[in-house]
Write a structure and sequence with these properties.
The protein is an alpha+beta fold and about 300 residues long. The chain has 8 helices and 4 strands, in the order H-H-H-H-H-H-H-E-E-H-E-E.
Length: about 300
């Protein structure tokens, strides 16, 4: 038997993220253009690096919004779960792109260390302050949905990385203005690239875990099994599988053995309620097998 109420939870998670992402996309795109122009004008690698991250943000936001649209398409005879997994693929691609941008920044910073170009500090500082406002506003908009959806989380992590990059730009601008020490620009840029990698690695690991249909980390499998065994009439549980279909939509399947005197419908209803209300598993598929019991202890039933 199946629980068909699973779509509502995932849909509400997506809807909360879409409006925020559209606003962030607009302000990020505008600021990216400003930063590109300022980066070439001032000669600052830190500004160019931050603009590169902004470009990654814009691309990831567009990709995520496209993924949201695909995932809202209904299931069919070929795609029985619909297109939910599109969101996970999009988050994976976003992570890979962010790693590529970070590695490029580190390489370019290393190349400039031997001969750092002169940088114009004043406009660099102004653009950095503007970027601080943009990134703080974007992070605030995305923070509420980032814990519920991997696509929003990917965008949120990139905004956080841009926030760190903006802080680096401000530090570099102040140093250039006060001391004319231009080496600070590639040093800060390289540090920005390195700081992004650990967060992105965590995102890639989470996406890979879902695509490999690993058990969600927030679901206590031992506790789930114990709760199911505690249902009156249940004598054994086997072939339990728990996995994530998409952000906000976890699923469970398994076989439950009950004694022949227990009503299967009642046992199944209790197990489904436990899975949904205590463990957040909105899609459940449970096969019930009735057997003749030779005793009261779990595992003493035979067919």
């Amino acid at each position: 038997m199946h629980d068909h109420e699973h779509a509502h939870g995932a849909a509400s998670v997506r809807e909360k993220g879409v409006s925020s992402m559209l606003v962030v996309l607009g302000i990020t795109s505008a600021y990216m253009l400003v930063e590109v122009l300022a980066g070439f004008y001032t000669g600052s690698l830190a500004l160019i690096a931050d603009a590169g991250h902004m470009l990654g943000d814009v691309a990831s936001l567009i990709l995520a919004l496209v993924a949201f649209w695909f995932s809202s398409k209904p299931p069919n005879l070929i795609k029985t779960y619909g297109y939910y997994r599109t969101e996970i693929f999009a988050a994976l691609i976003n992570g890979i792109v962010l790693v590529g941008i970070s590695l490029f920044i580190v390489w370019e910073a290393y190349r400039r260390l031997s001969d750092p170009p002169a940088v114009i500090g004043a406009p660099m500082l102004v653009v950095g302050l503007l970027g601080l406002v943009v990134n703080l506003a974007s992070a605030k908009l995305l923070s509420h949905s980032a814990s519920e959806n991997l696509n929003v989380k990917a965008a949120y992590l990139e905004v956080l990385s841009d926030l760190m990059a903006t802080a680096g730009v401000l530090v570099a601008a102040v140093v250039v203005l006060l001391s004319k020490w231009y080496l600070v620009d590639p040093i800060v840029s390289g540090a920005i690239g390195l700081m992004i990698l650990p967060r992105t690695w965590s995102l890639l690991a989470e996406c890979t875990h879902i695509l490999m249909e690993g058990a969600p980390g927030h679901v206590d499998l031992a506790g789930l099994r114990a709760a199911m065994l505690a249902v009156p009439g249940v004598v054994d549980i086997h072939d339990i599988h728990v996995w994530t279909i998409t952000s906000g939509l976890d699923a469970m399947s398994g076989h439950v053995t009950i004694d022949k005197d227990s009503p299967a419908d009642t046992v199944l209803s209790e197990i489904t309620t436990i899975a949904q209300e205590k463990f957040g598993l909105r899609h459940t598929t449970v096969q019930v097998e009735q057997v003749e019991c030779k005793g009261q202890t779990s595992g003493t039933c035979g067919s």
